[in-house]
Amino acid sequence: DCSDKRVPVVSYRDVEEFGELVKDAFLKELNERYPNRNLSPLEKERIIQSAFLHTNTEVYVPKEEKFEVIDYSINDSEQHNLVITGESGMGKSALIANWVWHHIEDDSRNIIYHFLGSHNTQCNYRQIVLRLSDEIGDIYNLQTSAIRENKKPEEILQANINAIDGMKPLIIVLD
After folding, report:
1. Rounded to 5 degrees, what angle do the CA atoms 164, 137, 70 make?
2. How far apart are CA 154 and CA 137, in angstroms?
3. Which among 6, 82, 153, 169 could bridge 129 via Cys, Cβ 3.0 to 4.6 Å?
4. In the chain, which stretches have pLDDT less than 50?
């Protein structure tokens, strides 16, 4: 019975017409979900970072005790920095990505993450620092143009961090 309206039924003459119908339906869906518009550098970087985050969460088997250690350190009012170390290939990026994934929707704080291995700007600290500054400015609705005038990237980041003092807590995750 083809009366189910949830699944469209389309007739076609041959495999070429079927291919065109599939292509048209796919492009229509793609254009609806991702309209053709110019993305800002910040939006482009967010997409790259999000893709890297998702890639590192797909095959990870969570170990709650590791998350608990991170949570304990993050929630310790005396602790301001946490460094996770280990040999290459031990799963640090996957651990960090999964911790972020499990906490990104936490309304009590904001999280900005940056995975250095996500693409070719990984070693350009100025771009990374400016991206973090832009994220802070965007999340906290800061007027960043005045902050940026004649300043080094690290001064801009520090000014943005100072500007959010007393606001919702921020966690910056770098991997």
Report:
1. 65
2. 14
3. 153
4. 1
Q: Of the candidates 40, 46, 44, which has an alpha carbon nearest to the alpha carbon of residue 114?
A: 46
**Which residue from 83, 85, 91, 82 is spatially nearest to 58, judged by alpha carbons?**
91
**Dihedral over Cα of 38, 40, 41, 44: its sign:** negative
What pLDDT sits at residue 148? Answer: 72
Do residues 103 and 111 make contact, with C-beta atoms less than 8 angstroms apart? Answer: yes
pLDDT tens per residue, range 62-89: 888 999 999 998 888 787 788 888 888 8
Query: Which pLDDT score, from 0 to 100, does residue 41 have?
Result: 87
The span from the CA of 141 to the CA of 70, in Å, is 28
